[in-house]
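User: quick one, sequence for these tokens?
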């Protein structure tokens, strides 16, 4: 699953070598990469760069940030906080990575509920069986009236091949996805032929971006707003962009 199409497009692997060759020799690079692979086998490294801590490198895998000592002996997983400036440096890196990852998703693979001239855009990983996802969709008119476009991606919480996943595959195969989405929420059934759909890719992307529950809302900049937000709170958050 990690090798799926969207994951290969997250951040081009060649940027690793472009970023680190100016700050470390090849032997040091290989040592860091070997150390990471020894504890995280099979993971695709997207970026290695100097961190704010001397002799420590930040390593980006999808939207996860790790820190590895220059000798490859120690690995930390967690947030690096700039205390004087009260900045979460790890979250800043995650935000940039998420933005790039979302930009790789074809527009045709999204279900878009948008006003005519949106001022803001949010991406929402949704599960059609999730009560708070249904509540968010119930707010869609007010959200759109606030100038916010909502672009849905599929994220069946129990995984691929579950009833929720099957339901979302039907929605994404429907001729009118918006209508199918709304019909499914209110319990209406419809017949549709199976098709090539992006549900598996969306689920894999959500996992790589750190989604653990739904609705998972991301701003256009890649900032993560986990959980349901009422329309006024959502507007407040996107205005921070």
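Assistant:
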């Amino acid at each position: 699953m990690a090798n799926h199409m969207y994951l290969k497009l997250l951040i081009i692997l060649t940027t690793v070598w472009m970023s680190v060759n100016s700050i470390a020799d090849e032997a040091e690079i290989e040592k860091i990469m070997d150390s990471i692979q020894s504890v995280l086998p099979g993971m695709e490294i997207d970026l290695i760069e100097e961190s704010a801590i001397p002799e420590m490198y930040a390593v980006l895998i999808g939207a996860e940030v790790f820190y590895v000592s220059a000798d490859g002996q120690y690995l930390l997983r967690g947030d690096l906080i700039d205390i004087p400036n009260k900045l979460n440096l790890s979250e800043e890196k995650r935000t940039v990575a998420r933005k790039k990852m979302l930009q790789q998703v074809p527009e045709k693979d999204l279900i878009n509920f948008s006003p005519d001239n949106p001022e803001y855009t949010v991406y929402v990983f949704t599960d059609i069986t999730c009560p708070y996802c249904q509540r968010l969709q119930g707010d869609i008119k007010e959200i759109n009236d606030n100038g916010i476009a909502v672009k849905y991606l599929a994220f069946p919480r129990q995984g691929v091949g579950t009833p929720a996943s099957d339901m979302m595959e039907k929605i994404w195969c429907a001729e009118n996805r918006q209508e199918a989405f709304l019909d499914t929420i209110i319990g209406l059934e419809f017949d549709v032929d199976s098709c090539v759909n992006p549900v598996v890719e969306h689920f894999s992307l959500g996992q790589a971006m750190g989604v653990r529950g739904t609705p998972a809302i991301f701003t256009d900049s890649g900032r993560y707003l986990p959980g349901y937000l009422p329309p006024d709170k959502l507007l407040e958050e996107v205005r921070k962009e």
